[in-house]
Amino acid sequence: MGDLSALMEIAKEELQNEDGMEEISSRMMSGKFTLNDMYHQMLAINKMGPLQKVMSLIPGMSKMEDKINYEETQARLLKYRYIMDSMTMEEKDDPSVIKSSRVQRIAKGSGTSIQDVRELLKQYNQSKKTVKTFMGNRKMRKQMMKQMGGTDLDSLE
Q1: Residue 95's closest CA among 136, 123, 53?
Q2: In this predicted structure, which of 3-17, 32-46, 101-115 has the lowest mean pLDDT?
Q3: Cα–Cα distance between 7 and 56 in angstroms, integer?
Q4: What pLDDT, in 10s, does the model give residues 50-104?
Q5: Which residues, at least 6 apart from 120, have a Cβ–Cβ distance to it below 8 Å?
Q6: Which of 9, 54, 70, 99 has the smallest number of Cβ neighbours within 10 A?
Q7: What is the mean pLDDT of the chain?
Q8: Which residues does 66 contact at the CB level (< 8 Å), separation at least 6?
Q9: Residue 94 and residue 34 in contact, taking contact as beta carbons nearer than 8 Å
Q10: pLDDT at residue number 9
């Protein structure tokens, strides 16, 4: 069925000692999201255990379990990590600077295809839109902040 509180507990335990995770969370809550943030999120998810275990804790995901190829998804996340490892800090902080010649260099440096790099950038843009949508929903944002034990961001505006 999923257990969001168990997921939050695992996340707190695994990420408690993680440097910068609080900063990344607050930046995301303020609407900023970079490839660096995405990279650190992927590392954090890996620390929480196998993807299938993490997904099983999310309410409603049990209905989709047979539709998700966890091995393929895990392989894709690893490939994305290699791609991001081949990027400069400037590219990870501001992906808009990544044009055709940089895509080629990144693909060559990561041992992946140009299509893989473009797929990562597309996934990043979708994630960024999702974060913006989430941040535009005050009720959802307040609920998330309450669960995280943080302060209300509306007081920071």
Answers
A1: 123
A2: 3-17
A3: 9
A4: 777 767 666 666 666 667 787 888 889 999 999 999 999 999 999 999 999 999 9
A5: 80, 83, 84
A6: 99
A7: 77
A8: none
A9: yes
A10: 65
Q: Which is higher by pLDDT, 154 or 116?
A: 116
pTM for this predicted structure: 0.69
Q: What is the dihedral of CA 26, 90, 109, 122, to 10 degrees?
A: 60
Hey, what are 112's tokens?
Answer: 């992946």
Cα-based torsion angle of the residue sequence 113, 117, 122, 125 in order, rounded to the nearest 10 degrees: 180
3-state DSSP of 1-70: CCCHHHHHHHHHHHHCCCCCHHHHHHHHHCCCCCHHHHHHHHHHHHHCCCHHHHHHCCCCHHHHHHHCCH
CATH superfamily ID and name for 4-156: Signal recognition particle, SRP54 subunit, M-domain (1.10.260.30)
Alpha carbon 35 to chain centroid distance? Answer: 9
* Measured CA angle at 98 (ends 26, 128), to 5 deg: 30
